[in-house]
User: Which sequence fits this backbone?
């Protein structure tokens, strides 16, 4: 069976080469005589795979030694609780920007643990842009300042990061990590679920500045205690061993593509092609406001929800799958993460052009 172009928001498309390598190594990894899935996480064979994965993340993102790299479970959603539990312990207060459903979910979760100040929000406008923010209202006595670097559902992205002074910036980068060069030193914590741009579901990457460790609330579940997990090399209990191995393969693939700066250029090109088409089209319109457009999730629609449904149906038949928008946003969404080739985007645009001619 032929593989389709999968525009799903996550779990998302993976590089075919990674899947082939995993298939070839499924029964026997190297000379271990077993599948990675069958290895003890306490043995050298698996530790080497794990260390290599951490090493690749550190190199690709140029993360200095002053940051700890953790691979945890519970998804980005788990971190919505872990963040206040690990950080909201000096002032019991944090500033949040409400820029989308996931940002909102994070701040609702944090409210269980302390005071949450929403310092900017675009909720009233159904999150069509990242809200403007005024540093004058930021609290210098916040334990941290929280943003979502890319809003997966609405297709928006911060083009300028807030300057939070000495308050640590904590960022959910689930849907644009590794898609563009981030200066990690701007962040206290950068975290991401793996299933968009790192690998398969089941792993959560947490990059935390070391000076922020050592202050968890005593109520922190130990699997989400960053300080403890850092001491134990993310192996306080059994890590998601096979998913981490697959992340390692994806990271090697990214390195072969030239790394983050090289893939960023391609990502800019891919998203530009789609937005240029949307801006010219008489049938399709982009949903996110141009100043906030994401390079990873491109949201669009026609003027007619029935036509949107027809488009999704016909696109699927044409092998352009999962272009239906999230129920909270409506319309369509094409997620074009690192592993989506340029050819996939070109095919989608060609199909949209044909659809437009047929449905004038
Ligand atoms: C997908 C996503 C999440 C949720 O991730 P889970 O791993 O399902 O918990 C959170 N934040 C953002 C920005 C996402 O894209």
Assistant:
């Amino acid at each position: 069976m032929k593989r389709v172009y999968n525009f799903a928001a996550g779990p998302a498309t993976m590089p075919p080469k990674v899947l082939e390598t995993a298939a070839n190594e499924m029964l026997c990894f190297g000379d271990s005589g077993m599948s990675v899935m069958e290895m003890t996480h306490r043995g050298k064979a698996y530790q080497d795979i794990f260390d290599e994965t951490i090493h690749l993340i550190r190199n690709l993102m140029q993360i200095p030694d002053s940051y700890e790299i953790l691979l945890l479970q519970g998804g980005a959603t788990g971190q919505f609780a872990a963040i206040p539990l690990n950080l909201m312990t000096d002032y019991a207060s944090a500033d949040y920007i409400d820029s989308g459903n996931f940002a909102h979910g994070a701040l609702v979760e944090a409210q269980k643990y302390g005071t949450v100040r929403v310092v900017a929000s675009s909720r009233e406008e159904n999150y069509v842009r990242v809200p403007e923010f005024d540093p004058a209202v930021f609290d210098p006595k916040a334990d941290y300042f929280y943003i979502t670097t890319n809003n997966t559902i609405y297709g928006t992205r911060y083009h300028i990061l807030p300057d939070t002074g000495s308050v640590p910036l904590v960022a959910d980068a689930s849907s644009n990590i590794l898609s563009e060069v981030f200066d990690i030193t701007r962040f206290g914590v950068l975290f991401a679920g793996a299933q968009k741009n790192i690998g398969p579901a089941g792993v959560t990457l947490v990059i935390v500045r070391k000076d922020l460790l050592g202050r968890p609330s005593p109520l922190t579940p130990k699997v989400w205690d960053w300080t403890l997990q850092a001491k134990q090399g993310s192996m306080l209990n059994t890590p998601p061993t096979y998913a981490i191995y697959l992340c390692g393969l994806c990271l090697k693939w990214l390195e072969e593509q030239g790394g983050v700066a090289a893939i960023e250029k391609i990502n800019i090109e891919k998203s530009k092609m789609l937005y240029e088409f949307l801006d010219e089209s008489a049938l399709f319109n982009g949903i996110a406001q141009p100043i906030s457009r994401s390079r990873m999730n491109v949201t669009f629609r026609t003027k007619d929800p029935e036509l949107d449904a027809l488009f999704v149906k016909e696109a699927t038949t044409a092998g352009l799958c999962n272009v239906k928008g999230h129920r909270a946003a409506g319309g369509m969404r094409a997620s074009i993460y690192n592993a989506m080739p340029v050819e996939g985007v070109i095919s989608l645009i060609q199909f949209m052009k044909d659809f437009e001619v047929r449905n004038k």
Remarks:
- The longest helix spans residues 260-280.
- Residues 10, 75-77, 102, 148, 152, 172, 174-175, 193, 196 surround pyridoxal-5'-phosphate (CB under 6 Å).
